[in-house]
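Dear colleague,

Thank you for sharing your sequence with our group. We've completed the structure prediction you requested, and as agreed, I am returning the results in plain text so they can be pasted directly into your records. Please verify that the sequence below matches your submission; if there's any discrepancy, let me know and we will rerun it promptly.
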Amino acid sequence: MPPLPALAALLPGIPLTPPPPLPAPAPQAPLQRQANPAGGKRVQGTSISINGLRQQALWLQDAGELWLPLEVLEGQLGVSRSAGTGGSLVLEWFGQKLELGADRQRSLDDEVAVPVGNLLEAVGIKISTQGRELQLELPSRPLQAIRASKPSISGQRVVLDLSAPALVRSGDGQLLIGTEATAPQLEQLKQLGLKPSQSQGWLRVQVPREGERLSLGAPWRLVFDLPQAADQGMATTPRPAPERDPRLVALQSQGLQLERRIGRIGSRQVLINAVRLDPRQVPLELRPLNRSDGMQGLSSLSQLARQEQALIAINGGYFNRVNRLPLGAMREQGRWLSGPILNRGAAGWKAGELPRFDRLMLVETIEDSNRQRWTVTSVNSGYVQKGLARYTADWGSRYQPITGTEMGVLVRQGVVQQRFELGELSPAVPLRDGDLLLVARGGVSVPWQKGEQLTLKSRASNAVGDQPNVLGGGPLLLQNGRVVLNGSAEGFSSGFMSQAAPRTVVGSDGRQLWLITLQGVNNPGPTLMETALLMRQEGLKDALNLDGGSSTGLVLADVHTVKGRGVAAAVHNGLGLVPKLEQARTPERP
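Please find the predicted structure tokens below.
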């Protein structure tokens, strides 16, 4: 978090004179691991109440420590996170800082959870449980002052001076802040175009676009960006229900089908949201959705859809929530943004055609001038294993080491331009179009020196990988009408295979493309086998499981209509249906 002088540079036109003196928290040493009381019980729940607002979310108390998913910490409490060294995770919240090594991160079903009881208590949160519900309480205090920079093309920055730390919930273009604003302050926020309202200790503001958000201590402040100031304060007409959006209505007359209904598999009831279309008839193009600034980072599904002007979007493949890097295949217009891993299921397609489905690998080798061949284990991937990996500018403008023991060579036009010994890849290596960075991990050494000639040979294991667009997930559920579920063949654990959770599926019945989300009705959701059987029951011939759990999401006409566990979780990538050019010329709204 930037110190005060650096923050001043980010806030042009905002005087940074602190508000009237207030009792500030005493300086604290970095938070230490909480002592485990003898005989602490293990209790896991699925519901969290935050200042009286209840939601479905996982939590765990184990040996006296409270573990919460990263999505809850960021999206529902306002904690900031960043990657530390050696796989560690750094959490910051109103001046409190907590660094957690890889051994202090654990899987909570399909979520990444960390122990944060000390962090919550240091900020003033009261923690209690009632049955399977976790209750978090932080009293709302008065909002002291509001400051804002002058609007500019780059946007506007707003500072809220707080009487004490406050909870911050985000999602659907809104922030809920646990503070009390006066009528003049609400009017000031209204003038900034934030459409404020105050209810039951929560200040609600609408943020037109998502931007950086900081919580600062001593004095307590919340800082957030309004990236497109020109959008603020504009009069807007009420938004229709997404299925009644005129663009979707027009497409439904051309064959697009939107369904929402209850299905049943065994003893479970499942809420099915399905989008169906024949891509040869309906003027919508299926596209991978990813961030424009490289492979590292997460976004909301709504953001990814807006960026590509997708009318419909579902979440995509897997990713590491800690370092925010992809874990599976993504190919766009013939470019491998991220290569396949572990022979996992993938879908590949050309514009205007139904996707193909299969398990997928890339078979790649590097051959040197001595005709020696070296296997490349991964391409533009956050999946780390022993061996040789390659990275290109599609990964991003710079490569930063993922592990602490990496060496490599930079190749341009088939010739080694630079050699990096252990530790020399830090802090980052710039990547230009046409560059190929070969990175060796796990004690593997590269023998090549500057000036040596290297040749890359690459082929996909089947026709899916030859398609211009590819998205990976897994496991593969159906192929040619048969259930082909085999988690061990795709590197999934037995625990993952047996979990019940919300699901996202892309599939085909041989005539139509299907984009599907599944959520349990009074149950956690279907298992993967139940998902496969339900998809066959629905008439699909091919089906691929994508990331699920809290990642499961569906956006219709810029409305996030499905949230896997009730929260719009950040995701790495998605699948979107984008109007073709002739359709895009139609006015968006009357």
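Summary note from our side: The first helix runs from residue 4 to 10.

Kind regards,
the structure core
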